[in-house]
Design goal:
The complex is a heterodimer of chains A (238) and B (80). With 238 residues, chain A is an alpha/beta fold. Chain A has a single domain, classed as Rossmann fold. Chain A has 5 helices and 11 strands. By secondary structure, chain B is an alpha+beta fold. Chain B is built from 2 helices and 3 strands. In chain B, strands 2-1-3 form a 3-stranded antiparallel sheet, with helices on one face. The radius of gyration of chain B is 16 Å and the shape is elongated. Chain B starts with a strand and ends with a strand. The mean pLDDT of chain B is 96. Classes of the chains: A alpha/beta (238), B alpha+beta (80). The interface between A and B is medium-sized, with 20 and 11 residues.
Amino acid sequence: MKFAVVQFGGSNCDRDTYHVLTDVCGVDTDLVWYKDGLRRPYDAVVLPGGFSYGDYLRAGAIAARTPVMAEIVRHAKSGGLVLGICNGAQIGSEAGLVPGTFTLNAYPKFISRHVYLRVENTTSPFTGLYREGEVIRVPIAHKEGRYVASDDVIARLKGDGRVAFRFCDEHGNTTPESNPNGSAENITGVLSEAGNVLAMMPHPERASEAALGSEDGVKIFNSMIAHIEEHGHRGPMR
Amino acid sequence: MNYDVTITIALKEGMLNPEARAIRHALANLGFPTEGLSTARLYRITLDAADAAAAEEEARQMCERLLANPVIHHYTIEVE
């Protein structure tokens, strides 16, 4: 099993994510500089957090148009897993891997704090180890994280079970007060149509070790590993 | 020949614009109450094209492929 963490100019959670995958989850992982492309097949590609290209134009917009993203779109189309975290979620939505977009927070400032999330889907490759309705504590750190999509898209996401996570309070209630950035219907984790891409604003890699105050996020990576062990997904050769 | 193209990209009608809201609030604090305020981003691009229609099509492609996000934006193009 092989994971890739893709590094763009301005990525800054790449090594954190690599550390969790290799040292906490024990999975063989490559750090892949975006100019080098995917030089071998990967079971899963992680787009890490950061500020690729200084968030110029729109967060994630320029990274989404790099050649490596065309390869990652092909990887996803062939069933390979893609996890986009924070800036990686913005890149993934800009690249069309998931519908909708992540834009300027309703109160337009940078928010960095722990939040509660309710797990809405437990059948995806990313959430299989959670219980339905489980409340987890994971940090967010973004200014452009408000999920926006048309009413039709939101209805389809809900109907298809493609909402992975919603912001909630510590009891699991999805209230306006527990929605830090004004996301549509508190949504902050969205799955692709085939379910093999997850774009999420919260940072599970920052909640994967007891020393960091929460281990709730590590189940996302371990769910991916368990899914691959069971189904053996591999991306295409270049 | 060279054409000067002006592309204006703004949020679609009804989209929440937190930036405009903050600016409006600041203007009100300075004694400029407003009945409405919106923002847009403007690009001035010079490009070589066969004619004005080709320049406009080139600009439209730029909007569709990079400059605008169709989920939240609409755009206008003027060619001189």
